[in-house]
Amino acid sequence: MLSIIQVYGTMLLSALGRTLLMTLLSLVFAMVIGMIFGLMNVGHNRILNLVGTVYVDAVRGVPLIVLAYFIYFGVPAGIQGLGFSGFRLDALQAGTIALSMNCGAYMAEIIRAGIESVDRGQMEAGRSLGLSYGSCMALIVVPQAVRTMIPSIINQFIITLKDTSILSVIGFPELTNVGKTIMGNTFKNLETWAIIGVMYMVVIVTLSKVAKRIERRVNRGR
């Protein structure tokens, strides 16, 4: 095990960095996607409700590995079929899009639930003061909802971090993919995957502790 760390330690740390980078990028885009479709689902426009519901159900109903293959292979093939022969997506781009879409669907439900957890009287009070629906959402409802959403958002970050391992199927050099390379070079299955498992565990346990601490602070602040 020590020999693997000595020889491949830098490669493993670089792979962990790429894993965290993709996770962070995906979470940022997923927050935007989730906010858009989450607000669609809590609004009073039936068409927007339908669009939001269809997106969430469709994306959550497709396995991430299928979505990754579709983005990486299918989308470029379709665009090239339209005459854009030079169009390509690298593994980072395709993986980030796939993870963002997948995480965004779950984030939309987190945001919807967070907004609906705020007492309706808050919206009614804002409207009675002459504020528009949008202003009430932006200034009154969403700030209160964010407090309840933070622990769930961190948990979704953890799930997304683990989901990056699936993207090894499209060749993105994240931690699991690098683990396969090291295992193929050393033929030390037990030691290699033990190291990979420990690296994931350290990051995920740390994030879990952060989520619990934030949740306790939020609960004390209520």
Write up this protein:
With 222 residues, this protein is mostly helical. It has eight helices and no strands. The protein has one domain (2-221): MetI-like fold, CATH 1.10.3720. The protein has helices spanning 2-42, 46-60, 64-81, 91-117, 120-128, 133-163, 175-186, 189-221. α2 (46-60) crosses α4, α3 packs across α4 (91-117) and α7 runs antiparallel to α8 (189-221).
CATH homologous superfamily heading: MetI-like
Number of domains: 1
Q: From the helix content, strand content and strand pairing, which structural class follows?
A: mainly alpha
Helix percent band: over 70%
Q: What's the number of helices?
A: 8
Report the end-to-end length measured between terminal Cα atoms. 48 Å
CATH architecture: Orthogonal Bundle
Order of helices and strands: HHHHHHHH
Number of strands: 0
Please tell me the overall pLDDT: 86
Cα-based radius of gyration, to the nearest Å? 21 Å
Global morphology:
flat
Largest sheet: none
CATH topology annotation: MetI-like fold
CATH class designation: Mainly Alpha
Low-confidence stretches: none
What is the beta-strand fraction?
A: under 5%
Quick structural overview:
The protein has 222 residues and is an all-alpha fold. The protein is built from 8 helices and no strands.
Structural features:
222 residues; mainly alpha; MetI-like fold; 84% helix; 0% strand; flat
Which helices and strands occur, and which strands form pairs?
Elements: H1 2-42, H2 46-60, H3 64-81, H4 91-117, H5 120-128, H6 133-163, H7 175-186, H8 189-221
